[in-house]
Each structure stands twice: as C-alpha cells, then as structure tokens.
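Hi Y.,

Following your request, here is the sequence exactly as I used it, all 230 residues.
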Amino acid sequence: MKDKKYIFGLTIIILTFLVSLNPYLLIFTVPAFIIGVGILWFSKTKILAKTLWTVLPLLFWYPSMHLFFYLSGIIGTATAQKLDFNFPDNFKGKAIVVQQIDGGQEIIKKDGREQLNFPENGILLYKGKIESGYINHQYFYVTNAGDRKKIPERANYMFWDDAKTKTSSSEVGIWFEGMGMATQIPPDKLSEYKYLEMIVSSKDSLEKYYDFQYNKRTDSLKYEIMKQCR
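Below is the corresponding structure, written out as tokens. Let me know if you'd prefer a different format.
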C-alpha cells in the first residue's frame, strides 16, 4: 500500500496542476503546489518518483496551458449561441439590437442558427436574448432576391502600425462594439433594456459613425421606435 503522505501530496500536485491551466489562478495554486511537493518529499517513496512528480508538472505546465486555451476556444465557439446578423444590401452605419422587448422580431432559427434580420434603419427590436461569453456570430448582406453575401468581422487592432492582418481601407466589415453606451438618458421605462451594437463600415469611413451628433440621432431614433413597440 502506498504511503499516505505520497498519495496526499500527489493528489494536491495533480489538482493544482489542472486548476493552474487557468493562469489567473496561479496566485492560489502555486502555494498549494509547493505544499503538495513538500508533503510528497516527506513520504517514503523512491527519490525518482518524487523527482518526476516535482519536475514534470513544471515542464508540462506551459504547453498544457496553451492546449487548454486552444481546446476551450474550439469547444466554447462550437457550443456558443449561434447568431446570423442579416443586413439590407449595402447597409452602412451603426446597427443596434434591442434585446428582449415585446413587439420585437420573433426568434427565428435556420439550420440551428438564430436569424436577426435588420431593417433599413439598422435598429432591430428582438424578443430573444444575446448571450455573453464565447461568440459564434456571422454577418451577411441580404439582397432583395434573398441571396446572402458574408461581411467579414474587423477588429480595432487593424489600426495598429504593426498589425499582422492587413485589409483594404475601403472594404466594408463589421466592427463589434459590444453593449451600447447611450449618448442620452433613456426615457421612462426604457432603461431596463440591453443593447448590442456594431458598426457596418469600411475602415476609412469608420470615424463618422463615432461622431457624437450621429450617435445622438441614432439613440433618439432607437428610443422612438422602442416607445412605439411597447
């Protein structure tokens, strides 16, 4: 029968190794790992076993951490809420989804993906809820005939001089804004709603959609449409 100190110490080492694959928890796992190693070395197990269980977790932690994040990303994206954002052909500007509002678009699913169909003004009232966490979103232009053309997603790091991803400044893409920050206080009973915002624009036209007056007009239109819906 194995030494109880060996079993106890080894258990602590294995558990702390697994938990520490999330590097934000190292502040807690490192002290526990050291305690586990100490208990292990006070056991009567052979020196070789003690050495291996002390060194191997240190050697394998870094590659295991990257593998953990890689697999988490794949699994997280595959199991995340699947949304298709469908815009009128050639739409440009700020697009807003008002979530969980009565009178909004019903939840429509096609091939397992929710279909969010934006009107010409870019403000979609939606009965559904957009979940946080991993993202599995796709963006499309939809013609009058129903044909869809994918719109690529963009990121602010494309403005950096050393950005690895290069794209034409005139090519339209989606700039994800996240939860909206209104330019004005919402009217009575409208402050409870959550918004998801994005901008459909080329890089060279993006600045005008950050303009304060533009966003103020957009928010005013959003609130007016919401009041009519309630």
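The beta strands are 82-88, 93-98, 109-110, 113-117, 123-125, 136-142, 148-150, 153-154, 172-179, 195-202.

Thanks again,
Q.
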